[in-house]
Amino acid sequence: MKTICLNFQIHQPFRYRKYRFFDIGNDSYYYDDYANETILRKIVDDSYLPANNVLLKQIKKQKGKFKVSFSISGVALDQFALYAPEVIDSFRELAKTGCVEFLSGTYANSLVSMVDEELFAYQVRMHDEKIETLFGQKPKVFRNSELIYSDELGDLIYRMGFDTVLTEGAKHILGWKSPNYLYCNALNPRQKVLMRNYRLSDDLSFRFSNHTWNEYPLTPGKMAQWITDLPKNEEIVNVFINYETFGEIQKKASGIFDFLENLPEAILKTKELSFTTPSEASRTLQPVSAVHVLHPISWADEERDLSAWLGNELQKEAFNHLYALKDRVKQCNDPIIRKDWLYLQSNDHLYYMCTKLFSDGEIHKLFNPYGNPYEAFINYMNILSDFALRLNKCVPVDETHAELVRLRQTIEDQNKKLADAEKELKKLKSPVSASVSSGKKTTKVTAKETVKKSSSPGKSKQ
Fold it and tell me: Which DSSP symbol is given to 352?
């Protein structure tokens, strides 16, 4: 019997306000609160909540036979807590069914796995603690940001305690092989690898409402038949998509929620298909062979590599400047700086700087706050410059810089004292202040001021 593994990714970055050059060093609040709340509320109302309601209804209806998994970034959970706490409650209800698995990942949906093992492990621990606190599950299976994976990275993830990882079933990696099996890591055979069936996944995410598609309309029965018709020895079909597929990428009017509601019954009534979670698949299936991934792959664009985030000089410069600060951030104990650093790492900020067109781009174009990649780059680098100044105060580069920081702080303190002294001096020089402080009328006043005083309530006439 073939089994179907459904995984839904949820991530929304904290979007930044228009941060100008002259804000650097003067204003360290970077976030566009209005945009963040407005966008998240729209997605919650159009996608997350109605989709969760459908899932909960179908899980109960199918009495434990319908199962799904979620990959939710910590940054998305932070936004839910701020703007839509009812979403967290709805996920708690799903978690209680026992048919929903929450996977591990990076807190900020970042590229940190490509840079620093210590920071990578730190973000994963943060994420998993958040998941366990909110939903009572300790993640067992790992899904890296954007399904990024390589042999070396898989081995690292195994050493972090995850024996199963999800990634893209990239054609240039698999060649003639099918993604519909469980594989293992080429360097560490104990690391199990579930590979995304990108054709079926993209049929649902991108082609569902395309009237020119030769398979339009896609119905639950048609998808069930496609999976049934796959070769008998193929064991698992992994459909990994963005959760915004339901209601945002594919609008409600397209019939996408009806599809989701009727899919479980269409699959289960075949008697040849079932649903599973990633951890169940890892326990019940055996790897058929190793998959060799020498260079990192992802699920983005036709290349299925990292070029969506690191494909041009703008992105590389921003990426390098960001992670050049990592060693000093590790030494910084300021919670606000560390939180800002975390949010700066969300890979969406690099994605906005992409200068090429690709099929996966529509996901981020939906809520891209910038008019073009260059505007995104300038805004991000301005924010990064201000962040570096704040970090320099907390953790100076060297002793010389530390001395400069101390001198600058001394100058700022002296300037503040001078400003306070000037304000006090002006108060003392003020005729009204002088009269109040001395208890006598001031003699050195103009005729006009004398008239005003004499006509004021509670004042005696001269």
Answer: T
Q: What is the CATH number of domain 2-308?
A: 3.20.110.20
Q: How many C-beta neighbours within 10 Å does residue 80 have?
A: 23
Taking residues 129-146, what's their average pLDDT? 98
Place of tokens 């289960």: 268
- How many residues are listed for the chain in this entry? 462
For this structure, is 146 an active site residue? yes
Query: Residue 249 is which amino acid?
Result: I
**Alpha carbon of 361 to those of 149, 280, 301, 314, 368: distances in Å?**
20, 32, 8, 17, 10
146, 168, 235, 248: which is the annotated catalytic residue? 146
Q: Is the pLDDT of residue 408 over 70?
A: no
Q: b/e string for 183-197 if b means 16 or more Cβ within 10 A?
A: bbbbbbeebbbbbbb
Q: Are 239 and 7 a contacting pair, CB within 8 Å?
A: yes
Q: Is the pLDDT of residue 416 over 80?
A: no
> Which tokens is 305 given?
């590599």
Query: What is the domain partition of the chain in residue ranges?
Result: 2-308, 314-394, 399-451
CB atoms within 10 A of CB 424: 11
Using DSSP, state whether 220 is helix, strand or coil. Answer: helix
Tokens of 89: 């409650």
Question: pLDDT per residue over 326-370, tens digit each?
Answer: 999 999 999 999 999 999 999 999 999 998 764 444 554 667 889
Q: What is the pLDDT of residue 440?
A: 45
List pLDDT tens digits, range 45-63: 999 999 999 999 999 999 9
Concatenated DSSP letters of 407-444: HHHHHHHHHHHHHHHHHHHHHHHSHHHHHHHHSS--SS
Q: Are 149 and 307 in contact (CB under 8 A)?
A: no
